[in-house]
Amino acid sequence: MGNLIKDGGIVNDNWQLIESLTDDEALRLPEGDLILPLVLWVQQSSLFEQRGSWPGLWIEGNQELETIKHLIALAPVIAVEFSAFTDGSGYSTGSLLREVYGFEGELRAFGELIIDQVPYLRRCGFNSIALPDGQSLEDGLELLMNSGLTYQGSVFSPRTPFKFRYSKVGS
Q1: Which of 42, 51, 98, 114 is deepest in the core (most CB within 10 A)?
Q2: pTM summary value
Q3: What is the average pLDDT value for the chain, to the nearest integer?
Q4: Does 138 have pLDDT greater than 70?
């Protein structure tokens, strides 16, 4: 387990990404906090229902959310995989999870990311960002902290500076 940027700081990542399971592993899942790909999550859901706790959900950036809307509220973490830093579908997925589907848990971006994306990921609703090896978490956090005011609204601050200016006129 490594570190990641979460809620404005660098923290230890307690979640394990489980890519696949052998038949034997499926019978006795590893202990701890797990994030499973959508297919495994659905296959193993009866085990987690018996346990009374749900794993994190790993989805692709272009996942059709309407097909999994019943799962969104169950997952404590939703990890959105960016298959390429040039694919912007994960940004839309993050925004939709927050604004349309009301997801309030940890929303994690991971995969083929670059540091320059950190402030944009935050503006689209991601509160957790796992950068690939070789990318500096400290530099990513600095970018996040210094991103400041933007002309576009975001998931967390939908009003733009322009709208703030007009709200003061005539006050």
Answers
A1: 98
A2: 0.83
A3: 84
A4: yes
Q: Which amino acid is at 163?
A: K
Within 10 angstroms of residue 153's Cβ, the number of other Cβ atoms is 14
Are residues 113 and 85 in contact, defined by beta-carbon separation less than 8 angstroms?
Answer: yes
User: In angstroms, rounded to a whole number, what is the distance separating the alpha carbons of residues 110 and 4?
Assistant: 10
What are the sequence ranges of the domains in the chain? 3-168
Digit-coded pLDDT (tens) for 87-137? 899 999 999 999 999 999 999 999 999 999 999 999 899 999 999 999 999
- Beta strands (DSSP E) in the chain are 3-6, 9-12, 15-17, 33-37, 56-60, 77-82, 106-111, 128-130
Say how many residues make up the chain.
Answer: 171
The CA distances from residue 86 to 34, 113, 129, in Å, are: 28, 9, 17
Contact 32, 14 (CB under 8 A): yes
Q: Give the integer Cα–Cα distance in Å for 54 and 56.
A: 7
From the list 92, 126, 129, the residue with the least C-alpha distance to 110 is 129
What would the DSSP string read from start to end of 101-118?
S---SEEEEEES--GGGH
Mark residue 114 as left, alpha or beta (left: phi above 0; alpha: psi -120 to 50; beta: remaining). beta
